[in-house]
Automatic annotation (TrEMBL):
It holds the Pfam family Lyase_8_N. Residues 54-379 form the Polysaccharide lyase 8 N-terminal alpha-helical domain. Residues 824-834 have a biased composition (Low complexity). Residues 425-679 form the Polysaccharide lyase family 8 central domain. Residues 694-757 form the Polysaccharide lyase family 8 C-terminal domain. It comes from Streptomyces roseolus. InterPro entries: Chondroitin_lyas, Gal_mutarotase_sf_dom, GH-type_carb-bd, Lyase_8, Lyase_8-like_C, Lyase_8_alpha_N, Lyase_8_C, Lyase_8_central_dom. Residues 798-823 have a biased composition (Pro residues). It comes from the Bacteria. One of its GO terms (molecular function) is lyase activity. Belongs to the polysaccharide lyase 8 family. Residues 792-842 are annotated as: Disordered. This is Polysaccharide lyase 8 family protein. Residues 1-43 form the signal peptide.
């Protein structure tokens, strides 16, 4: 029987593998089965089996509820459910007094969130409310109230579409699965009718609007569960087919790109939030549909799974996911209406990614070798996370805790070490990783927005795309940005950024800001180990312009700035760094070998300084000497200052801030310094005395460095020109590495405008060249001249990025196409002549 024809009760045969898997899930749920109500007076079928699978995904399997960390988590769930049950007071306009229904759609979703927690506490063992008749009655009462007053087939949506089509129905359907045997047929019918009203089948007719990327996966989850709860096979089949557009790599718009970039909302790097939703949603859907007539078997789905290593893993560092790919999610703290819920930070988001990868590894969609590699990678992250271990994360569900505990206890899986690599992405993001530390650089351009704000979130993220350098690995560990950084940091002193201090209004650029700078030069080139990164920076609602570069080495990142010009009538700053010192303020700060005061409120301007270091954190070197402004200060803020739906409780954190003041209305200002994560004061002093980098050029036209110890010469050309041994005829980024008689050249065009770039290297003696596809070797006589096709030149897919964003409430114009990968121009060798295989494209 074809799955398309299955619209009623299903009795199709199932495979032995499916039956065994369901038997295992049933055994794991046996402890709670007595509280799920009487078995229906009919034979179990695939819908029942799928519902059982989903309940297993919600409750977890294979754990001891009396053991740590499960006993604590289950007790906390019970306490939360008890508090919500006590506070529930059905009235004329609300189910809970603090969640009035009628104007704020999020109150509908939050009401279902609370009922879902109550349903989980009823089903899960060890909550203190397991099987409570009073709790089951309260859940039923709550469902009836919402079905009559809030989420009905006749309700006209208001406020945010997401609550009506994703937020509320997902929680409603979870409750339906958990409490199915306790619900009357009329209650199930009412819920299904409401979902059908808000999520009609027409939503899946095209891959457009808000039905793309992570949103599309969420909508498919709603439709599939609606089919399971309502016993409607046609809806499950539509959901399965609706996933298909998500799998292929995209060239424009929302989704996963070939290089691992993940974009949502047209121009926002979003692997850490929307990308996590997509990854987690797909893993759950694969498990739900496996072994049924609607199993996902498309080769494209397996191909998508291979993108996990490229698209998500680079942004996870020891259990956290980097803020540079989390969009407006960085502003989500403790919610006003959910004081019992744990605040979101880079660790809670990262733990979700970790759990999603583990779930995907167990889904059977990836080859065994790939799943094994994921598990080793995840185990390494978990073992190295000492600041906020996943098993101590109270925001994690029991299923996620159980999967992590099982992995850590599995002797067959060896934890993978931190990789040594550099990853550069089309979405104007880069990640540099070394043993013990990692750094992530956030840029913006005509392709990616300055920042995103919307729903009252991320109100002061204005400069987070202006060259922000986030790094981890000091003794304060991975709490640098997790510990209330965003509500307390000075938003004009974000690490690595160059900004005008012109005051900006909250949400500057407008709600659902899609404002992008006009510059196209952002990105760089990498050989996979080292990198030259650059940005033609522009100011948000400012006249600021300038050129910034980051040259990523083994133990340091060398940072250059030039051509910094502004006419805003205010000072312009480049923030060397701004370290969150945590609550104790006990770090020793040293400048040129002299320990400085640890008094909060202390500040000083150092002239001609060569090195600075914070004990246990890292150091900064100024090889030419520099005037650096420093302050050690306690800053107080609240999550509500950056997110209107968050708590107004004051929070105070201590900061050590270092910056260059370029003065009011600078014309052509610049800077040069080196960031050394984890370095001591003595190591910084030694580096200042004997620099490992020579700056070949630092102008608005070109920024270039030479690092003889690594055989590296790297240059960012913002115009045709010469730097050291490199001459180019068009804007580009070039990396040259010479070692053991071999020279490797990598070139890319970050502007995405030039079809070809001619690179001339003043190097003689190379007898042979092995050129990559798309590279012509014009001569090796006396010098090496290469012509690299950097092109695949594409016109914008929509309106000019400098134009105002289009009016739809959640989406702006399509972005420019992503860049082609940097070209490996060739591997040249000295005599005797040999031919070498070039390294892969990056």
């Amino acid at each position: 029987m074809d799955a398309d024809q299955l619209t009623g009760p299903l009795t199709a045969a199932m495979s032995r593998r499916r039956l065994l898997r369901l038997a295992g899930a049933a055994a794991a749920l046996a402890g709670a089965a007595q509280f799920l109500g009487p078995t229906p007076a009919r034979a179990a079928d695939t819908y029942d089996a799928m519902r059982s699978t989903w309940v297993g995904l919600l409750t977890g399997t294979g754990f001891d509820p009396a053991a740590a960390p499960f006993a604590t988590a289950l007790s906390a769930l019970g306490n939360e459910a008890r508090a919500q049950m006590t506070a529930m007071a059905p009235g004329a306009s609300s189910l809970w007094p603090d969640l009035p229904i009628g104007t704020v759609s999020a109150h509908v979703t939050t009401s279902y969130v609370r009922l879902r927690s109550m349903a989980l506490a009823y089903v899960q063992p060890g909550t203190g409310l397991t099987g409570s008749a009073a709790l089951a009655s309260a859940v039923s009462t709550g469902l009836d109230w919402l079905a009559a007053h809030a989420y009905t087939p006749s309700t006209t949506p208001y406020d945010n579409w997401w609550d009506w089509e994703i937020g509320a129905p997902q929680r409603l359907l979870d409750i339906g699965a958990l409490m199915y045997a306790r619900l009357a047929p009329e209650q199930i019918a009412a819920g299904c009718a409401a979902v059908d009203h808000f999520v009609p089948l027409s939503e899946f007719a095209s891959y457009s609007g808000h039905s793309t990327g992570a949103n599309r996966v969420d909508l498919c989850r709603v439709l599939a569960l609606r089919g399971v709860i309502g016993r409607d096979g046609s809806r499950i089949d539509t959901a399965r087919k609706g996933l298909s557009p998500v799998f292929p790599r995209v060239l424009t718009g929302d989704g996963l790109y070939a290089d691992g970039s993940f974009i949502q909302h047209t121009c926002v790097p979003y692997a850490g939030t929307y990308g996590t939703v997509l990854l987690g949603g797909l893993g759950r859907m694969f498990v739900l549909l496996a072994g049924t007539p609607w199993a996902v078997t498309a080769p494209e789905a397996r191909s998508f799974c291979s993108g996990v290593t490229a698209g998500w893993a680079p942004f996870v560092y020891n259990g956290l996911v980097m803020d540079g790919v989390s969009g407006r999610g960085i502003s989500r703290g403790v919610q006003k209406n959910d004081p019992l819920r744990i605040q979101q930070d880079d660790h809670t988001r990262g733990h979700a990614v970790v759990s999603d990868i583990l779930r995907l590894a167990a889904s059977g969609m990836a080859p065994a070798a790939q799943s094994a590699a994921w598990k080793a990678m995840v185990k390494g992250w978990l073992r190295r996370d000492h600041y906020a271990p996943l098993l101590a994360d109270r925001s994690m569900g029991i299923p996620e805790l159980a999967a992590a505990q099982a992995l850590l206890d599995d002797p067959s899986v060896t934890a993978a070490p931190e990789p040594v690599e550099h990853r550069l992405f089309a979405m104007d993001r880069a990640v540099h990783r070394r043993p013990g530390w990692a750094a992530q650089i956030s840029m913006s351009s005509a392709r990616t927005t300055f920042y995103e704000t919307g729903n009252g979130e991320n109100l002061r993220g204005w400069h987070s795309g202006s060259g922000m350098v986030s790094w981890w690995g000091d003794t304060y560990g991975n709490g640098q940005y997790a510990d209330a950084f965003w509500p307390t940091v000075d938003p004009y002193l974000l690490p690595g950024t160059t900004v005008s201090t012109r005051p900006l209004a909250d949400a500057a650029g407008g709600e659902w800001n899609r404002t992008r700078p006009t510059n196209t030069w952002a990105g760089g080139t990498t050989d996979g180990t080292y990198a030259a990164l650059g940005q033609d920076v522009r100011g948000l609602q400012s006249t600021l312009t300038g050129r910034k570069s980051w040259f990523c080495l083994d133990d340091a990142i060398h940072c250059l700035g030039a051509g910094i010009t502004c006419a805003d009538g205010v000072s312009v700053r480049t923030t060397v760094d701004n370290r969150n010192l945590g609550p104790n303020n006990n770090q020793v700060f040293t400048v040129d070998g002299t320990v400085q005061p640890a008094t909060l409120g202390w500040s000083r301007t150092f002239t001609g300084s060569r090195s600075m270091a914070v004990g246990g954190m890292g150091a900064w070197v100024f090889p030419e000497g520099a005037t650096v402004h420093v302050q050690r200060v306690a800053r107080t803020g609240s999550w509500s200052t950056v997110n209107t739906s968050s708590s107004a409780t004051p929070l105070t954190r201590n900061y050590l801030s270092l910056w260059f003041d370029h003065g009011t209305d600078p014309a052509g200002a610049g800077y040069s310094y080196q960031l050394m994560p984890g370095a001591t004061a003595s190591a910084a002093a030694a580096r200042a005395a004997t620099p490992n980098v020579t700056v070949l050029a630092n102008t608005a036209a070109v920024q270039a460095v030479d690092c003889p110890s690594l055989g590296l010469t790297m240059a960012n050309f913002f115009a045709a020109g010469t730097a050291g041994p490199i001459t180019v005829d068009a804007p580009c980024s070039v990396l040259v590495r010479e070692r053991n008689g071999t020279m490797t050249v990598v070139v890319s065009d970050p502007t995405r405008d030039a079809a070809t770039v001619r690179v001339t290297l003043a190097r003689a003696g190379y007898a042979s060249v092995s050129a990559a596809d798309g590279v012509q070797v014009l001569t090796t006589s006396g010098q090496v001249v290469l012509l690299a096709e950097t092109g695949e030149r594409r016109a914008p897919a929509g309106p000019s990025p400098s134009a105002p964003p289009a009016p739809p409430p959640r989406h702006g114009p399509p972005p420019r196409s992503p860049p082609p990968p940097p070209r490996t121009s060739g591997t040249a060798r000295t005599a005797p002549p040999t031919t070498a295989t070039p390294p892969p494209w990056w």
